[in-house]
C-alpha cells in the first residue's frame, strides 16, 4: 500500500484509488487558493529520513532538509508540545546564541492590501481580521515549520498559525525557518499554494533566503511575521 | 486460440484547469485491431433473429411485404454457418416463421434454404404491438447461451396496439439480452419509438423510404453483425471520491447518450454498455465529470476509463485510458479547448439542434424551428458534416447572401424523417 499526498492508502500506484491525486505529488493543500501567480514546482526525490515523496529540497511531511539537517540529529516530531503557549519549545541541543531570536506574528494591513491588489477583482472574499492578538514565538532548534495544524494528518507546525483568527491563505506546511551556522535564520517556502514574501518581495520556491534583524515575512492573505534578533546593533552592523 | 481483436483506448483532453475549476472533459477513442478472423477460430458463438412486421399495413402497398420477404431472404443468405438463427413475424403478437416450432436453427445450406422458403409465405394482417415482438425474440434468444445476440427489427407503422408503457417494459426486459437494429419502411412509423428501442438495445435506427432499398440494407446489417467477435464490452469509468459524472456519450460514429445506462460496479466505478465489437472498429466517447478542485500545481486522476469484458476468469480489462486534471494559474494552458472535445461537443449540439428544430416545426413554432435548424446548418457546415448538411438542405433554405435560414414550405415526410433518424450521425475529427 502506498500513501497518497492526501494521506489515503492506495492500492493503485499511479493515482490514489480514493481521491485520484497523483501518487508522489505535492501534498494536498486544504487552504484557499488566493489565485496568485505561482510557478508549479517539479517533484523531487522522496525524503531520505521519513520516505515521504519529495517536492523541493525539503520533506513536506517532516521538514527534513539535506543541506541544513545534520544527519545524526533527531527528527523534528509532532510529539512536541503544541505551541498553545504561543512560544515554541527550546531545543536542548541548540546553541545558546540562537535563543535570542523571536518571530512576531501580526495581521498586516499593508500585506493584505498588496495581496488583494495582486489577485485583482477575482479575489476570494477574505476579510481583514478585526482582532488579531500579537503572537510571539521564540526561535530555537535547527528548523521550525510554519503552517496550519492539520487534524487529519496530526501534524502541528512549530509556528502554528491555525488561529483564530485563521488566515485561509496559509498552507499546512507553508514555510520553514532554518538555523544558520552563524546563528542567524533563513526561510524557505517548500511550495506553498500562495507563496511567501520577505520584505514585500516574493521568494522562489525551494530557495533559502537569509533573514536579518527586523525582516518581515508576508504569507497568506494578511499574516506578517517580523523576525526580531536580540543581537546588539553593533553586532548586527558587523555581521 | 482466440481471434478476438485487441483494443486500444486513446484520451484526448486538455488536462489543465483554472484554479477552482471542476469540469473535466475528454474524448476517449476506442479502436479494435484489424485482426483477420481465421475460419473456425471463433470463440464467441452468435445468434440472429430477424423480426418482420406482418401487420395489415405491410400489404398496402403490397410492395412493402414483397420487399420485406426478399430482404429477409437476403439477410439469411449472409448468416454464417454455425450461427443460431430464427425469423419471427410480428403483428398484434409475434409468432415463429422459421423454425416453426419456436426454437432456433443452426445455419447451414439446408436450414438457410428452408428458412427462405418459409419467409415466402409471410402474410399481412392485424395491428402492431412491437413490445410483443421484442418479448418473443428475447424468449427465443434465452433458449440458448450464445455470446453475441443480435436482432433486426423491421416495421412500417406506429406501435398502435399496445401502450407506451408496455413497449417500455418490453425494452427494459430485453436490455442487455440482445442488441437490435431497427428499420422503418415508408413514412408511417414513429422515429421516436424506434429510436427508443435502438438506443436501449445498442443498435442503429434508420429509415428505408422506398421498400426497394430494404434488401441492400438488410444485407449490410447482417454482414456488419457477422463481423462482431466480442460481445458485451463495457466502458468502466472510475472516478475519485466527491466526483460527479456529468455524462458519458458515444459521439462517433453516432451520438448515443449512455449516461442513464450506468451499472453500479463499486462506490467509485460504473459500467456503460458499448455492445458488441468487430475487428477494425473505432468509436469515440465523450466523458465529462465534475471533480473536487485541488490546489494549483496539483495533479489528479479525474477518471480511469477501462474497456472491460466478462470472461470465465472474471472481468477482463481490454484497454485503459487516464483522464487527468492539473490545476494551473496559466490561463494560456487552462483556457485551451481540446480539438476533439470541441469537435464532438459541436456534433452533439448539431444532433440536438436538428431534433429540437424538427420538434418545433411539428408543433408549429416556425420561429424556433428556423432558429434551431439554422444553428444546425451552421455547425454542419463548419464541422464538415456533409451528410447532415445535405439532409438539412431538403428541409430549410439558406439565403446564399444573408445566410438567413427559412423553413421550406413543403417538405417530403421521408426527408424530414431521414433528417431526424440520421441527426445523430457524426463525422470524425479531421486529422
Which secondary structure elements does this structure contain, and how are they paired or packed?
The complex is a heterodimer of chains A (239) and B (431).
Chain A lengths: L1 E2 L5 E2 L91 E6 L1 H11 L15 E4 L4 E5 L11 E2 L14 E5 L5 E4 L7 E3 L2 E2 L6 E2 L5 E4 L3 E6 L4 H6 L1
Parallel strand pairs in A: 5-6
Antiparallel strand pairs in A: 1-2, 3-4, 3-13, 5-7, 7-8, 8-11, 9-10, 9-12, 12-13
Chain B lengths: L6 E6 L3 E3 L4 E10 L13 E8 L8 H17 L5 E7 L3 E5 L6 E2 L2 H11 L10 H12 L6 E8 L8 H11 L4 E7 L5 H10 L4 E4 L5 H13 L3 E9 L5 E9 L3 E2 L5 E2 L4 E9 L4 E9 L8 E13 L2 E15 L2 H4 L4 H24 L3 H18 L2 H8 L2 E3 L6 E3 L5 H9 L10
Parallel strand pairs in B: 2-18, 4-5, 4-8, 8-9, 9-10
Antiparallel strand pairs in B: 1-3, 3-16, 5-6, 5-7, 11-15, 11-17, 12-13, 12-16, 14-15, 17-18, 19-20
Q: What does this protein structure show overall?
A:
The complex is a heterodimer of chains A (239) and B (431). Chain A is mainly β and 239 residues long. Chain A has a domain at 83-238: Tumour Suppressor Smad4, CATH 2.60.200. Helix content of chain A is 7%, strand content 20%. Chain A is built from two helices and 13 strands; from the N terminus they run βββαββββββββββα. Chain A has helices at 109-119, 233-238, and strands at residues 2-3, 9-10, 102-107, 135-138, 143-147, 159-160, 175-179, 185-188, 196-198, 201-202, 209-210, 216-219, 223-228. Chain A has a six-stranded antiparallel sheet with strand order 4-3-13-12-9-10. In chain A, strands 6-5-7-8-11 form a five-stranded mixed sheet, with no helix packed on it. In chain A, a hairpin with a 3-residue loop joins strand 12 and strand 13 (223-228). The longest helix of chain A is centred in the middle third of the chain and has 11 residues, at 109-119. Chain A starts with a strand and ends with a helix. Residues 39-99 and 232-236 of chain A have low confidence and may be disordered. Chain B is an alpha+beta fold and 431 residues long. Chain B has three domains: 7-39 and 231-335, Immunoglobulin-like, CATH 2.60.40.3670; 46-226, von Willebrand factor, type A domain (Rossmann fold, 3-Layer(aba) Sandwich); 340-421, Four Helix Bundle (Hemerythrin (Met), subunit A), CATH 1.20.120.1690. In chain B, 32% of the residues lie in helices and 31% in strands. In chain B, strands 4, 5, 6, 7, 8, 9 and 10 form a seven-stranded mixed sheet that branches. In chain B, strand 12 (244-252) and strand 13 (256-257) form a beta hairpin. In chain B, helix 3 packs parallel to helix 4. The relative contact order of chain B is 0.15.
